Description:
Layout (H helix, E strand, L loop, with lengths): L8 E5 L3 E5 L12 E5 L4 E5 L10 E6 L5 E6 L4 E5 L4 E4 L13 E3 L2 E6 L3 E5 L7 E2 L4 H6 L5 E7 L2 E11 L5 E16 L2 E19 H4 L13
Amino acid sequence: MKMARSGASASLIDKKKIYVFGGCWDAADSSNWAEVYDVETGTWEFLSVVTPKMPLKIQQSLVMDDEKHVHAVDEDGQIFNFSSTECKFEAAEDGRTESNPSNWLFADQALFCPATGGRILWRFPFESDWKDVKGLEQLQQQHSGFHIIKLSISGVRLAIFWEARPQGPNGQILELWYAELSIATRCIEGVFELSVANIEWSGAVLSLDSSSTGPLNLLFADSFYL
């Protein structure tokens, strides 16, 4: 890269270029705030973009389904949308800010994020209010202290990870659990609702001795095909 960065965002557009925004801190100006990596040529170039502000840190960014637009939130919770065709950032038209600025997942035209109490929230990108995904009561009742730590996509299903309470005689065994959920969408009097149609699979995928490892910290999860 041409500029040292901390707290930047990186987004792959059209499977050809990686757009990087922010993270320059005090050195930020219009000439270096963004740069782009060309996958085919293996080269970095600074990118001149039109933007209403140059956030020091991008808290979260996601590429939309058309792979031409990036939905981003800065450290103040302000929402931006980037167009790769126009090379322009635009703030949300209504000036709204984001109440859940991290751990997003974009799937099936909606944003998802984990919440306290083993809940999953969702909203459409153009909306501001988050709503609960219904139908998680079975997992919430089966697992005391159920708290989702990571969301992912497995094919057409929503995948969730959570840390089970310590097991064993001395409470030393930590378990990482995983479940795949089928999500159903319905519209009632013009209001969309998302719910868990079925728990396709769930179980422990990792067991560790907490006396030697400490608490689990799942950094990243994604699906791939073999």
